[in-house]
Design a protein that fits this description.
The chain is an alpha+beta fold. It has helices spanning 28-31, 96-99, 104-107, 112-117, 125-142, 151-170, 181-196, 203-209, 214-225, 229-247, 252-258, 264-275, 279-285; strands spanning 13-14, 20-26, 38-40, 43-57, 60-65, 68-72, 77-94, 120-122. Helix 7 (181-196) packs across helix 9 and helix 8 (203-209) packs across helix 9. It holds the Pfam family HTH_18.
């Protein structure tokens, strides 16, 4: 059996115990569970209701304060550092299995790189109140043992919040965060990958686009993420492939062509290299 390529860079993997999980008025006690850096398999959307705290997201330090909305997509590396003042948070999270049933690369095409680069945006006024009400409602529903939540409700709510988050990013002026040169290169590379991953999977293509040598680009990505350029490209390709396998009726051959692989066999080998199983086995396992 082919060995699975490590896309996880040695961080512990964290998923949710149920398809959807929401809590209101989370305090530092729960956040302390994330004192050790970990990599999310789930997708989480959180709102800071009170106080402030220091966190790292994708190895970058942030200060989260009241009114900040946090988007943590699958694959995000997170770590809670400390509370600066007493914190209260609300959040809704969707398990890896649940969020893989939507195609993030299609829903968030215009904003995916913005969410990764700037996972925290400040909200206020009516939007802040609406987000708090939404998260409170889901907290009440998901923690009510008498409630049987139909999967379609979870799915459509997840799509709704994703579209809402994309809208928040798309309707705000985009100002790239001033980083060091390595982080700027990583940001620009990620943007290019989200635009070209269905057609280009060679590191040389992206190095040329960024006017860098392949070695310089490789070293930079390793410094920022701990992984390789090909790992980063593959993470986006595999995310799209998994979503197509789980959320559409497309055949493996149709998906291969949609992602611009020369043959279904070539796509199958690529998928198995990174996932550890064939596309058909993955589709059948998650039916």
């Amino acid at each position: 059996m082919a060995s699975k390529i490590n896309l996880d860079f040695d961080f512990p993997q964290v998923d949710l115990p149920s398809n959807v999980l929401a809590w209101h008025n989370i305090t530092e006690d729960l956040l302390n569970l994330y004192k050790q850096a970990c990599k999310l398999k789930a997708g989480i959307f959180a709102l800071c209701l009170k106080g402030s705290m220091k966190v790292t997201i994708n190895l970058i330090d942030y200060t989260v304060k009241e009114g900040d909305f946090i988007t943590l997509l699958p694959g995000t590396i997170i770590q809670f550092k400390e509370a600066i003042s007493p914190v209260k948070m609300s959040f809704i999270g969707f398990s890896a299995n649940t969020i893989s049933q939507v195609n993030l690369m299609e829903i968030a095409a215009t904003s995916y790189h913005k969410m990764v680069e700037k996972p925290i945006i400040h909200v206020e006024g009516h939007l802040l109140k609406h987000l708090e009400d939404f998260l409170t409602l889901w907290s009440n529903v998901s923690n009510d043992e008498k409630m049987q939540i139909h999967p379609s409700i979870i799915h459509h709510s997840m799509c709704a919040i994703l579209i809402g988050v994309v809208n928040m990013y798309d309707t705000r002026p985009y100002e790239p965060i001033a980083r060091n040169r390595q982080e700027e290169i990583y940001r620009d590379l990620l943007h290019l990958i989200t635009q070209n991953y269905t057609k280009q999977r060679r590191a040389q293509f992206y190095a040329k686009k960024l006017d860098l040598t392949p070695q310089h680009l490789s070293t930079t990505v390793r410094q920022v993420t701990g992984g390789t350029v090909l790992d980063l490209i593959a993470s986006v390709v595999i995310m799209d492939a998994k979503a197509k396998l789980k959320s559409t009726n497309m055949s493996v051959q149709e998906i291969a062509y949609a992602l611009n692989f020369p043959t279904a066999s070539f796509f199958g080998k690529y998928f198995k290299r990174y996932v550890g199983m064939s596309p058909l086995s993955y589709k059948q396992m998650n039916d």
